[in-house]
């Protein structure tokens, strides 16, 4: 027999008899408090979970003087450094922290499983209260995360979106900005196919005419109008002409798709002033002004749908795309506030979050599991109107493409979208993109010089 933690504590019980626990320490439960207090205070918030889940056998024994005993593993003193009582509140707060939710869920589930299997009845009141509080907190955290995940799966893969006719009958009009190519062109084609007339808005009149002709070829019953304007100019006359054009139209759907990003990922201090001004003017001010022209008539008719095309760059701070990231973050908060304002009037606002899509702006040509083409992205968006997909916890927001929905859930509910890990990964990715873009520019410059 060997000595235990202290002179007042029973010795180790080394037994190898069949049916008996091996190498256990018999400790009075009232001394357990002193054991915890006496161990190292230099421990992290999950040490108590490691300590609690290490119990192999826990019992209450009635003996003379009604003393309670608890069996714990003999190796506790050399492997575990549990939290002291003052650290319990910090532990519980950490369990609820979004930055460590995944670790908290795993530890909470392990703790509940062990304590459900064995009976733990501490002698002191604070231990009983802390254990109960920890169990309840762990159960709530685990249940909430599980329900959120199931809700996301149902929204992404099973539940259908609302029908477009809820927002206006077939034959009414859809206004699409940035309609000359990419996602805007696909919105125009698919909404025309769904029975809506299309007002196309973009900078190039020739490209708009080409899209209008394509609509007439594929959907002869659809009417089209075009309005060429440069959103970066912020010209009042352009907006006055647009106002006159739409005032007699029954506009049911507005797709705010116009946008601009940086030419290549660039540190903020090196970003040209004209590029920053264009990004803010097009992405923010242009979207606001178009919406202010269209929304009042929708409110009067008590119906309408406003889609705002956003980006993961607005949800995740994106180094080397700082101005673009900030402009999309603005749209996220503005559209959420706008959605709350317009909902009582029957007008639905939905911010559409997306990762990368093959387009001229992204400069990506190949599709993958996480990078759809514009056709698939638009089809997913129109089929999931009113569904949050992976962003059900965010009002008036959706990540409709299935892989983007799963990514959005992981970033917001597990990894922590503002955490250093995600920020560092984002930064490294765009630094790599910048290096490749600069090398390509040097090669092209060399070819031109020769």
Automatic annotation (TrEMBL):
- Any single GO CC term annotated in Swiss-Prot or TrEMBL for this entry: endoplasmic reticulum membrane
Q: Where are the transmembrane segments?
A: 305-324, 401-425
**GO MF annotation terms:** ketoreductase activity; very-long-chain 3-oxoacyl-CoA reductase activity
**Which positions are catalytic residues?**
324
Q: What is its main location?
A: endoplasmic reticulum
Domain of life of the source: Eukaryota
Pathway as given in its UniProt record:
Lipid metabolism; fatty acid biosynthesis
Instruction: Family membership, please give it.
Output: Belongs to the short-chain dehydrogenases/reductases (SDR) family.
The name this protein goes by in its record: Very-long-chain 3-oxoacyl-CoA reductase
Task: State the species of origin.
Answer: Paracoccidioides brasiliensis (strain Pb18)
User: What lineage, starting at the top, does this entry show?
Assistant: Eukaryota, Fungi, Dikarya, Ascomycota, Pezizomycotina
């Amino acid at each position: 027999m060997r000595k235990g933690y202290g002179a007042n504590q029973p010795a180790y019980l080394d037994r190898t008899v069949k049916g008996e626990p091996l190498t256990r320490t018999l400790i009075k439960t009232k001394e357990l408090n002193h054991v915890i207090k006496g161990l190292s205070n230099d421990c992290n918030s999950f040490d108590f979970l490691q300590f609690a889940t290490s119990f192999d056998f826990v019992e209450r024994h009635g003996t003379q003087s009604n003393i309670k005993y608890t069996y714990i593993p003999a190796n506790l003193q050399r492997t575990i450094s549990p939290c002291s009582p003052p650290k319990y509140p910090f532990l519980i707060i950490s369990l609820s922290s979004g930055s460590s939710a995944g670790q908290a869920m795993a530890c909470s589930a392990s703790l509940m499983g062990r304590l459900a299997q064995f009976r733990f009845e501490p002698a002191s009141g604070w231990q009983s209260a802390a254990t109960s509080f920890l169990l309840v907190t762990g159960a709530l955290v685990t249940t909430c995360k599980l329900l959120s995940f199931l809700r996301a799966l149902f929204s992404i893969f099973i539940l259908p979106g609302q029908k477009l006719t809820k927002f206006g009958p077939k034959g009414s009009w859809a206004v699409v900005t940035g309609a000359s190519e990419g996602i805007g062109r696909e919105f125009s084609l698919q909404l025309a196919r769904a029975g809506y007339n299309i007002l196309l808005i973009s900078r190039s009149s020739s490209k708009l005419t080409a899209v209008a002709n394509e609509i007439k070829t594929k959907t002869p019953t659809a009417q089209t109008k075009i309005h060429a304007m440069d959103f970066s100019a912020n010209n009042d006359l352009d907006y006055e002409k647009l106002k006159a054009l739409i005032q007699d139209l029954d506009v049911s759907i507005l797709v705010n798709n116009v946008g601009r990003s940086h030419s290549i990922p660039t540190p903020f201090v090196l970003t040209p002033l004209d590029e920053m001004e264009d990004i803010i003017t097009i992405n923010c001010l242009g979207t606001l002004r178009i919406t202010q022209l269209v929304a009042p008539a929708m409110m009067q008719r008590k119906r309408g749908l406003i889609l705002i095309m956003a980006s993961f760059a607005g949800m995740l701070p994106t180094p080397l795309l700082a101005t673009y990231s900030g402009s999309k973050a603005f749209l996220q908060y503005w559209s959420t506030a706008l959605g709350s304002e317009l909902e009582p009037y029957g007008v639905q606002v939905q911010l559409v979050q997306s990762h990368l899509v093959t387009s001229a702006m992204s400069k990506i040509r190949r599709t993958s599991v996480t990078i759809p083409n514009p056709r698939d992205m638009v089809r997913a968006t129109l089929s999931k109107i009113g569904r949050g997909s992976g962003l059900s916890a965010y009002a008036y927001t959706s990540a409709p493409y299935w892989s983007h929905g799963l990514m959005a859930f992981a970033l917001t509910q597990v990894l922590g979208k503002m955490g250093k890990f995600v920020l560092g990964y984002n930064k490294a990715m765009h630094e790599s993109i910048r290096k490749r873009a600069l090398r390509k520019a040097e090669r092209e410059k060399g070819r031109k010089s020769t």
